[in-house]
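Structure in, sequence out. Go:
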């Protein structure tokens, strides 16, 4: 997760420092939060307590917020570390990340503005739209995790 960087210490002897790859650390937050949102959405669908819906909303909001720095650090790492390589793996990761942002931002805004963060409506059509959006986000997180795991982070 870190790159060794040789620099001279005050004594003139090269010192080995490690540079952190923030993207590798940050990427786990949106993936886990979107997974959590999906899980609580399923629980809410079958059990219907308000606390599961609230947990879904909070996890989705957290995943969307954490997705933004994850995309920025991923873009930065791609430019610096991989020199903007045009490989298929990078195109898929970039398109998936943009797609997740394009879906999660409106989903969060719609959920809070139209339905309210605490409202319970498991039988409404809005609930099924919300579930479909959460399902797409967890599929995007799986795709990101799969392709991220195929990259060499030495």
């Amino acid at each position: 997760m870190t790159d060794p960087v040789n620099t001279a210490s005050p004594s003139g002897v090269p010192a080995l420092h490690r540079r952190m790859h923030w993207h590798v650390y940050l990427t786990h937050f949106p993936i886990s939060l979107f997974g959590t949102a999906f899980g609580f959405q399923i629980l809410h669908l079958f059990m219907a307590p308000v606390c599961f819906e609230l947990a879904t909303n909070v996890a989705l909001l957290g995943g969307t917020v954490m997705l933004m720095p994850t995309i920025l650090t991923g873009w930065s790492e791609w430019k610096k570390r991989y020199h903007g390589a045009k490989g298929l793996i990078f195109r898929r990761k970039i398109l998936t990340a943009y797609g997740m942002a394009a879906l999660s931002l409106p989903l969060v805004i719609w959920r809070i503005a139209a339905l309210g963060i605490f409202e319970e409506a498991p039988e409404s059509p809005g609930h099924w739209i919300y579930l479909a959006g959460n399902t797409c986000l967890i599929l995007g997180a799986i795709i990101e995790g799969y392709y991220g795991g195929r990259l060499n982070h030495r």
